[in-house]
Amino acid sequence: MKKYFLTFIAITLVTFAWVSCTDFPVDEDGLLITTRGQCYVGNFELLGVDFQTVRTKAAVIDTTAQTINVEVFFGTDLKNVYPQFSLVTDAKLDPKIVGKVDFSDLANPKVYTVISGNRLVKKPYTVYVTVQAKP
Q: What CATH number was assigned to the domain covering residues 41-131?
């Protein structure tokens, strides 16, 4: 009886492990691929090297035009800032942000692509940075 019980447990565990691995697909980054098709930026932050905001006011995010407009304080070192995006659930950002980013070339704004949870919808967001007028 004990032998049959152990065999049953072993088969159950193997079946569970096989089913768990195939039910939840992941992408090349190891992130779960879901059925969500939403694809937008909910919030944007720009931090200085001291991890304090360098924004003068809240960023203006236009999800229709897919733009982000942010004004920073006069004197901000735009070669060393940390952008932070808050995305809709299960979405991801390309390119990935892995550290400081150089936003100093104001004539050529940065473009980040938001990719939906199902990985089928991709929307490029352009980040426009302006510097507050000299006080």
A: 2.60.40.2340
